[in-house]
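Appendix B, record 7
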Amino acid sequence: MARLLSVVALTVVALVAIVTVREVAIGRAEVALCDAATQKSDWPEAIGHARGAAEALVPGSPWPEQGWMRLEAIGHDAEARGDDETALLAYGAMRAAAMATRAPGSGWARRRAQSEEALARVAGASRDPTGPHVTSDSMLEALHDQAPPAPWLLFALAASAIASLGALVRLAWLGDAAARARVTQGVAAIGFIAYALVALTT
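Structure tokens (predicted):
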């Protein structure tokens, strides 16, 4: 058992190290590509790469913050020159990155609020006479209503479903082993209850 636990622990550490190195490399490359696109004033390309860097989130990596800073700078510069389309694209990418990196300590809530305020500001001050008039308050309300379920809820939903199915499969193999069957039935019941609770909150 100790040897098995050691193997599992080493496997987990190796996987975490591989993912971390990969995300750091992705962040670095995306920032470089963003800077290259910015020099050519290719704003959609620059915004896409900046968002990629912002979403390459791993502890200790400087590149997500660099991606955020570039998205914010592109949005502010676009606002200053009256390019509402680019500003909305940049701030929309900020919001999408915030929603994609929702995790404790990631600062996603602050980034989301910042991007939504910017989106509402630009939409409310739009100079396009052909488009519908949108107020800042209505834009913020619409953005708040569009929030998807948190990742931890989706993870809990999947985990509870897997636990329930695993327990049911084990129950089928146990046959008449009453004591073990009761334990497995309990696990299955807990899994179903957890699944139902998470489903109701999403």
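Remarks on this record: Helices lie at 2-39, 43-55, 63-80, 84-100, 108-124, 136-145, 151-174, 178-201. The chain is about 80% helix and 0% strand.
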